[in-house]
Amino acid sequence: MALPSLRSLMTRFVLRRLRTARAVARLAYRLYPTRPALIDRRGTLSYAQLQDRVLRLQAWMQAQGVRKGDIVFTWLPETGEQYEIRLATFENGTIFASFHKHLPADAALSTIERVQPTVFIHDPLLSAPILQAVRERLPHLHLLALGDDYEQALARHTPRAGTADVHEADVFALHMTSGTTGLPKAIGYSHRKYLDSVRLISQAVDFKPPANGPDVHMLGLPLTGPGSGLVLPTLLAGAALVMPEDFRATTLARLIAQHRVSRAFLSPSAIIDLLDEPTLDQYDLSSLTHVPYGSEMMPAPKIAEAIRRFGPIFQQGYGCLEALPPVTWLLPHEHVDARGMPLGTDILSSVGHVIPGVQVLIRDEQFAPLPVGQIGLITVQTPVQFEGYWFDPEKTRETLRDGWVVMGDLGYFDAAGYLHVLGRSADRVHRNGQMLNPREVEEVAHCHPAVKEACLVQHGADAVLVLSLRHHWRNGRSQQSMAHDVAEFLVRNLPAEMQPDDVRVVHEIPRSFLNKMLRREVRLMLAAEPRSTDPVHGPHTAAPTRSAQETRPHAHPASEAA
């Protein structure tokens, strides 16, 4: 592993001295005034221009009587204004919270009533269904609409620095869960924990700028979600932040090429889309030097293909909203061998080793620790774990047990100390009296060269594998023929007890706003279709039942796409 650069060592030294997110932002304004800071649909803002807008917005909030500790809520698309608002709350000690743009209107209204913000900055196109109800139920709420109202508010106020005494123990943000399984839950994080997360990241991430160009970071995940983790590293590096309005492969590729992006935070699905994009060769992506990926598990055959295509620039960390990353690291050099070629699926299917200062235990259903190689609940203790959901003690008790965060995932440690995450315990599939972990089947399916995405779900009594195909495999053969081909591949490469009962090919697998596969939507999609009378894969003889306390899965076949 290469030694850290002088720039990286200096960043770590500075990080030890900084105590609040406001201190990080003010340092960036002072050190990098002429550098590009934000690139979005409006163009490019320098750090000085960004600071001017942030301080004008802070002055508007102050004129409304907003005080330290008040909650500033946003419901906006992925725009630079969202970044400005976040930095304004750093400045005045208010608490930033945001909805993602796909949250249903009734859920947004319910959450606003529950959280009781002081300010609501919104996109009228999103808020129109609930705006009248918001005004009636929260008459003292200060509203600011994106567009002319927002720009006029900034123009009317002179830039003014925040005067509140902000401490490291103060809550700086309410992070909202995605809301895909119910109403969003809120977690309040202090400045100290947010900065501690960045300090842990800095142990492995070298913040040195590229050798042949400016340092430009790009969000490949929403700022309302995991993308928020890129804010402080971008400020510390004095880098520009590129904010795409959508996360389609062509949009990401165009912006990388146009702005010479050096560091991009991508979801596994975004990487898969890039690999599958037929026009990708039209874009020069050679500026990319570092690609952290996360938010869901990455299929090992696909990250191996990405390494062969783009080089050893990928890094994975494991974590969640309740236990901030990094819990584990799989660093760029740990993805490849001495020749720079991708390692085997036994390593690439893992999330790496647990980092110093963090503990991970695999437990059975009685919460007793399990030995190496056995599958169970992943539980975590980390300096940057949450202390509870915002005013929700019942949900807190479900997730925080005896000081350990129950991640909701099943996994195991291998003999080399790599953590393997097999997915949510709630997504396991019942079949013939046994339990299947979807990822064990999906990883093997990804080794077939035609498979773009794979999703094993429960459909009645059956385990159904739903597939989408890569672009150049979509023409020439029927979906039924391709499903049969993949099913035969699985027969050759999976034990009989792990074979799906049926394999189906669809045009696209539904995804969430975080670009993650939505298993719930896949189940609903199957439920809405007529039951197949001639499944591609018939049921097999029942195998012995496997509980959560299983042994580690089988080895993967060699990828036919290699």
Automatic annotation (TrEMBL):
SUPFAM superfamilies reported for this sequence: Acetyl-CoA synthetase-like (SSF56801)
Keyword terms, alphabetized: Ligase
Alphabetized GO MF terms: acid-thiol ligase activity
Keyword Ligase appears in the UniProt entry: yes
AMP-dependent synthetase/ligase domain sequence ranges: 31-390
Renumbered residue ranges of the record's region Disordered: 529-562
Protein name: Long-chain fatty acid--CoA ligase
Organism: Simplicispira hankyongi
